[in-house]
Batch of 4 targets.
Target 1
Amino acid sequence: MKFPLTKTTPLTAAAIFCVILCFLNGPGRGAKATEPNQSETATIEGKLSPAQTPGRLSWKIPVSESSSDMLWWHRVLSVQPPIEVVLSADTSQLELPLSKNLPPTVEVKISSQRVPKSDAFLRMNQIQLIGTHNSYHIAPHPVVLRVIRRFKPSEARYIAYTHPSLSDQLTRLNLRHFEIDIFNDKQGGAFAYPRGARLVKIRNWRAAHPEFDSDAMATPGFKVLEYPDFDFRSNTPTVKAALREWSSWSRQHSLHLPIMILIETEKSAAGKPSNEMSTFDTSDFEELEKEILQVLDPDQIITPDEVRGSYETLNQAIRKKGWPLMGDCRGRFLFALDNPGEERVNYLKLHPQLRGALLFVSSPANEPESAFLKMNDPINNHTEIQQRVGEGYLIRSRADADLVEGRANDHQRRNHAFSSGAHYISTDFPEARPEFSGYVVRWENEQVGRLNPLFNHDRDGIVLEPATLNSESVVKIYVLEVPSDQVR
């Protein structure tokens, strides 16, 4: 099955010779590539055999040898001029339709890296991964927590947890799903002076909150926290800081499984106290997407357009074609919107049917844009989750909530989440918290993930994440010469 990675989609070939202008070598010699040095060029010519499917031109991508358990996987990053140039099913060949209106040359930028051989048939929705709920959260200072407990005892009970840094969650805890609550602080400073810490008269409250980044909180932009003034502590103060931490880790571990980032949005009302909130509108989402792309490259993100491919709707694509192969997903992120109500409607106004969108949304099943579903109760929704997984939807669920299961050492909800086949399972207990119980949510042998039990994995040698996550990878530009009788 083929998954387009640009505006274009994969094809096959007749016979053609090509000219390559790029680095001197084909992929596979040296460190992670950046932009090709245009002054280092070489011309390589080759005549290829006829295509399996008539009416197409093809060219085999040159690579160095690979080990017996790895293969080269290629992704198209851009095409100039923007015509249909894609990859064969095994990504070994560039392909374009045979036509009499082709340009003399086609410039194609390709990212190539060595991946496990099972990446050629394992899809991203055929595995299960664990992540954290409110991944940024640090429990309020004990003095502040006592105040919260006095006025809102139930709330104090379920916010008494702390997660380590995002990098620590990735490296030490092997987590591949994160959730952040974000506020659009348009003017800056809305959350820079939390009243809770000052009202309880904590002596030198800044020193009592060493993670608090005053400079970052004073500047305009998206902030990451649970609730202003009292439950404000965060291991990452801004969306940009979170993105930089994730991206830095990802670039150093390019074979990691796809990381899902769930975003819940709120907005501080301009000119009003910071605890007065409103919903994101289309302009807020535009700003959010710009901020994401200021840190991440577009090719680091698995987008709805990519998954949709040539199908009319995203829903049709995931039900008939399926999700991308693992080779197309390694080292990348998938963003999803947590909000199901007005915010989802506003985002769809900005991107009808998610065309041109960076985020997936949790729309009801069978809607044109529906591909990701948030189904947080794996006990009451166990049968439906299994049904939706079988239909092709990507599901996020929760193994626990409000610290209830952790306090009771109750694994029932966790076990239902595992057996439901939900793909991304969220928890507040990626490691045991002795102050509560021995309750913990992790896979056997502390693996990064596991094969989804609802799929028939009948092939041997499947590798989720290899022991070494640093893969040899390059980005190169190839200029393909089109046969003269096909030039417009």
Target 2
Amino acid sequence: MSKIKTKHVFTSESVSEGHPDKVCDQVSDGVLDACLKDDAQSRVACECLATTDFLVVAGEITTKSKVNFEQIARETVRGIGYVDETIGFSADTCKIVLAVHKQSPDIAQGVNAETSESKEQGAGDQGMMFGYASDETPQLMPAPILYAHKLVERLAELRHQDPKTYYYLRPDAKSQVSIEYIHGRPTRVRTIVVSHQHTPDMQRATLEDLVKAVAHQVIPASLMPDDIAWHVNPTGRFEVGGPHGDSGLTGRKIIVDTYGGVGCHGGGAFSGKDPSKVDRSAAYMCRYIAKNIVAAKLAQKCEVQVSYAIGVAKPLSINLDTYSTHTVAEEKLQAVLESGEVFDLRPASIIRHLGLKTPHAAGWTYQQTAKYGHFGRDIFPWEKTDCVAALQAACGKKG
């Protein structure tokens, strides 16, 4: 449990949809979406590698869906904005290599309900997963990662919506936001860093002006003092980027994907994995639990950890930490989680409760999670706060 400091600065980074690792995440999750669309029982572990005009799609996939892997990859790359053949990576020119086979039967026998020892769906792997929430922002997310995401997301929106005006913006970008906290509450932005790929003719001052304007749009004015330290393309130029400038891999941005370094991380990546993999589904459930606890005003901040063994349905452990911000006894909250009265943490129950096998039916996709973070956007079911009343009742606290 961390002690709240009187004053500290915390920094988080985000990367744009055009970052080479995020290109790979989006292709992997595009494959997952395609598999689940016509076969909700699909088992998918899809990995990608991207480099100069070259993309590899590999992994273990068992599905009844007819999936055109190459088409998904090219459409994803095109949608991101890699359509210029002169910059070293393009949807129409990149070579695509496929290396896909079926899931191991040794894994399947422990995960499938009919073959597992308990006769219910077991976890797809061992490991521990974490979820976090804090009331420091309306989205119940840590402020540094939330605003780092919003910076690159808004710049990408401008690039897509008005390509004539923002012709100089290319898809690859990074952001970094440092926020000063006093007694655990965000009070002011100290530093903003943005590195954005651009055309050769762009003037650095043009990007500096744009970044400052966007930052004032997406970060609350109360956090934006006059003396922010700005670092926009601090090396001076960023013309060579994307998979041509740096190779990309699925699952290499796990801190960007979660809470920006706040709290703990179990080490498992998300993209390209179907929900039988608790790396993904249990991390979503832990966020759901933590967010509902904070929304119910049972704590100001909360972290939930759960652990599993492969092939075993029931969690091995559940741990709760409210960083001494709880409004009911932590022991009571812990007992409520362990009882399963409000949240059932067996894999099949998580999948069913959050609708993780049929995202298309609820109007969201896994590919959407693969850019600008898996948490903090209300389009996803694990962001709902529909268990507030049940939690308050279970804890004997009136709303």
Target 3
Amino acid sequence: MSSHILAIDQGTTSTRAIVFDHAGTVVSAGQREHEQIFPKAGWVEHDPMEIWRNVREVIGVALGKANLTRHDLAAVGITNQRETAVVWDKHTGKPVYNAIVWQDTRTQDIVDRLAADGGIHRFSDAVGLPLATYFAGTKIAWMLDNIDGARERAERGDLIFGTTDTWLLWNLTGGKHGGVHATDVTNASRTLFMDLETLDWRDDILEAFRVPRSMLPRIMSSSEVYGHAETHSLLREAPIAGILGDQQAATFGQAAFDAGESKNTYGTGNFVIVNTGEEIVRSGNGLITTLAYRLGDEAPRYALEGSIAVTGSLVQWLRDNLGIIRDAKEVERLAASVDDNGGAYIVPAFSGLFAPYWRPDARGAIVGLTRFVNKGHLARAALESTAYQTRDVLEAVEHDTGRPLTDLRVDGGMTANELLMQFQADLLGVPVVRPTVAETTALGAAYAAGLAVGFWNGLDELRANWQEDARWTPTPDRDGVDALYRTWKKAVTKTFDWVDDA
């Protein structure tokens, strides 16, 4: 009896495999971190082969902990770090270069060249995205331009591209021995190449980027059977049936299926997604238009998204670069050792600023320093910066949609931080709500896969699984938090124009 769904969550810092039961409850999990490679300032890479090895390992761990085999799995879903680009040889299965991660900024020269004719919104009407180093398209172009022989091999049809969902799907389904080369609409919408209306690759944009169409995967829905696991794997013949980019997966796992429903994920970065239903809403306030999901042959659902590059990774920076904490969990206790931020603000524009500013010329800054400020104030300023950046994005959402926020559904590792969640509620003036199942990203991928094979009957059944775990209600002192936010806005301006050639 196929009584479970396995979700593979290939994230920015680690890969996990999580087994869910029919109630959407976590049964078991395996997790393994992978190396963060920083060859130069602004460059961020991962080893795709390490990620593939880790995937196989965590699948075995998750199944072993639950005492399950592939016979117990109705389907497998995949969710992934979006925009991270892998290019590999389809005959050998070997990548031509490390995966270039979504945080990487090396492609600014390509962005500038393309933006010289029409500005950063040159392709926005078609693809919903501004030209930015964030998206996968510029990363593919960089590899073709900078890896010896890559362009020639690509034009011969030997090289193929994928975000990490595609890399895993291809390997899981046989690799060089007939692996399925496909992606879903949510990941395709993060390349700069997919037309939002036709859900197909745009040949004119590919030509502008000088990327051969033959490299690109087939675009499929977020919930259908793409293929079956190869016969020599632990998942032998299990259907791979769901793919969602990580932030869309978290939205799906939060049961935010309808227009106006939203979520905010607190991870390496923060990502706010607001479902706009079947309507394509183009932002006038610095957000991007993206796919929310598509189930089989149904009409696609769209979303507005605000992407914040650095939130949880700022806490990692406090730990790894400054050494003021030994473990990420210590940041809350250190921040709580002081009553406020002491006048200090951290604007973590390590890779420029994403939504709603889109300022690649910005760089990180700590402002408002006096001799009074200590490491407790810096810890508090780091947490507060996450809440300030979230308010920046949500104010843009309200301007674009005309809908006031009534509450905010949250997920991700930082939601365990009580001080941050309370400050977020105070700053927004609305309740912040966390679900019982915190693993909403993996759950969303599991839901998509389960729907495709009839493990779940429909969205109403998934809505019934959602349960509230914790709620933070705002305190009435609006004047105090609004004053803090005004100073934050001033701090942000101090980061602009730092990189002269951006």
Target 4
Amino acid sequence: MPVYTKNEPRIGLLGGSFDPIHLAHLALAQAALRELHLTQVQLIPAANPWQRQPLNAAPEHRLRMIELAIDGQAELAVNPIEIDRGGATYTIDTIRALPPGARYVWILGADQLANFCTWQDWQEIAARVDLAVAIRPGTPLAPPDALTKYPSKHELITLPFTPMAISASDIRARLARGDSTAGLLPPQVAHYIATHGLYR
């Protein structure tokens, strides 16, 4: 675990498309709060991720769905920094714009860790934030060789998390077919999607 200074806020950062946000996203955020003893987790919806296909729901819909999903959970917050900035989404731009005075922890999956060294200015990312990698309990951490050799005062942290069989792409496909998404989405998000006719 990283060593924090006394009274220093510990802020988790969970980026993603959130297209739509689902129960696995929320479970990961809660696991990070609990396991890493964070003050808060901020969910950061991407504007235009450069490494994937264009998103389906408009930014204002994805923001609103996150707000609905985390309503009543005081330690979770939505940070619209990437949508407000617009254009191609690069993690380093977001990290450079974070306010000082906190220790930041970027939360990512083991699959993202595998290609972390393809991210723009990944060395600066590793120098500015701790990396918390969600992996299955009992599974060893396997960072890229370049990352293990990069000197940094920040930590590479294992975040135990049992993966859930939920994916946004599957949810979108179900919605397009008119199939049930019970047990996959927060009820308020499912209602919002139905009301606005998203993903049909």
